[in-house]
Amino acid sequence: MSRTQNGMTVMGAGVRFAIFAVVTLLATALLAMTIMNVDTQKTRSYSAVFTDAANVISGDEVRFAGVRVGTVNGISLYQGHEAKVSFTVADDVAMTTNTKVVIRYRNLIGQRYLAIVDDGPDGAPLRQDALIPASRTQPALNLTTLFNGFKPLLSGLNPDDVNRLSYELVQVLQGEGGTIDTLFRQVGSLTNSLADRDKLIGDVIDNLDAALGPVAERDQQLSGLISNLQQFISGLSQDRGAISSSLVSIDRLTGATASLLHDVRPSLASDIQRLGVLAEKLNTKASRQWLEHFLTYTPYKLKVSTPEASYGAFLNFYVCAVNFIRPDGTETPWQINSAHRCHTNPVEPAPGTPPPGGSG
Q1: What pTM value is reported for the model?
Q2: CB 190 within 8 A of CB 157
Q3: For the packed helices 219-238 and 240-282, what is the interaxial angle rounded to 10 degrees?
Q4: Which helix (H) or strand (E) holds 81?
């Protein structure tokens, strides 16, 4: 009898241990499946193209109306510039040609999930393993762009209010309503803070009005100026080849001119100096009279002498008197021809004056 009782005791302990082991294994398996996001329902596979799938990883949830209905299986590059996300959806979720897939924030630490959105009941059923194009997908909200847009508003506010407002904005913009009342309360708190700075804001608005008023009054002139400037820039763009060639030619001309001036500068300075001496001599009363006489009678003398050269390429002149102007501006004495044809009574003229008959 004692052996039978001992055997039953051992058997009972073994049964209890086996039950404990089975329960423990089941709990461990359930915990592992929960951690690994393993689907226990029958599902179908699909894929979707996103312009940006940042922070989406394998194992993320797929939700429909807030209920988990699938799992993200993988992410890969699509056509070199987009992302392809593969996922599963439960069989009882209708997937049609109107169905959209949206990436949303699961929490503020950056985790994501895929949301299935039914955009209408008129779509045709979507076959399994179908690819949903980028036109029916939407990436997650870019929080950096959002917060940068609010930066001027939030720069002077309380940090706690900013954090609460940011959280409520993310929730509302992700389509997770229910926090709109809280959002309005936070906005009310922020507007009270802004009201404390109403004088500063008023001054800014007044200054902007003073600056923009004259601009608004001259909007047609400003529009015309911008249009003309655009046409001018377009013209310059079209003629950029000719302008470039002209600049090269101008550079070459400038170099050649500089070289020429460098070479002729000493002679040019000397010529200018001598021209000054000549101009001073010509500016005397006697020289002006002689020059006027020369300019007056030279055409008649040329008219008389031209027939003499009609039979050959030469002319004969008979010189009655001559003198010369030296480089230093001084004059030589007049040399008088005493021939009868020049003077009936040869008389040497006064220095600086031509003889009575003039020079031939």
Answers
A1: 0.37
A2: yes
A3: 90
A4: none
